Amino acid sequence: MIFHELNILVSPNLSDADIASFIEKTEVELQKLGKVISSRKPERRRLAYPLQNHVEAWLYSSDLNIEAGDKKQALDSIEKMLKEDKNVLRFLIVKKDSKKAEVKPRRGGHRPTVTEEKTEEPVLEEKPKKQKVQLEEIDEQLDKMLQE
Asked: Which of 7, 22, 89, 92 lies in disulfide reach of 61, CB 3.0 to 4.6 Å?
């Protein structure tokens, strides 16, 4: 199933009542084009960088399933509606696939679970250790070399 996620940054100058009416108006328009699957309550967020001299904005996001025959035309009408509204600072419409939204296993190594048995790793044979040379022996070797 394919659905779209809509994220909108709205001007922080709106009061709680104004933002509620904006969200209601937006959802009515979205219902005409499809079905709103879920929506999150708008919340005030601090922005990473200023947008149109605003440091904060209302963030509203919703998931919708566009049921209209021509999805491109429906998305264009949503985009047009949001561009015309002066309170909208930015918006983003993302196409999502519910199958891809599932958690996939990470690439790379496979970690054994509790039920799986660990296989024994081959034992590496140790190399015979070399004996350490005494400092006196090194001095003797150096003297021999220097005399030659």
From this structure: 7
33 Cβ contact partners less than 8 Å away, ≥ 6 residues apart? 64, 66, 67, 68, 74, 77, 78
Q: Residues 6 or more apart from 35 whose CB is under 8 A from it?
A: 64, 65, 67
Q: For 49-66, how does the pLDDT look when each residue is reduced to its tens digit (9 = 90+)? A: 998 899 999 999 999 888
What's the token pair of residue 17? Answer: 């009542």
> For 104, which DSSP code?
P
Q: Provide the β-strand partners of residue 53.
A: none
The C-alpha atoms of residue 114 and residue 92 are separated, in whole angstroms, by: 43
Question: CATH topology for 2-97?
Answer: Alpha-Beta Plaits (3.30.70)
Amino acid present at 15: S
58 DSSP assignment? E
What is the CB neighbour count within 10 angstroms for residue 9? 22
Which range, of 11-20, 28-37, 53-62, 129-138, averages the lowest pLDDT?
129-138
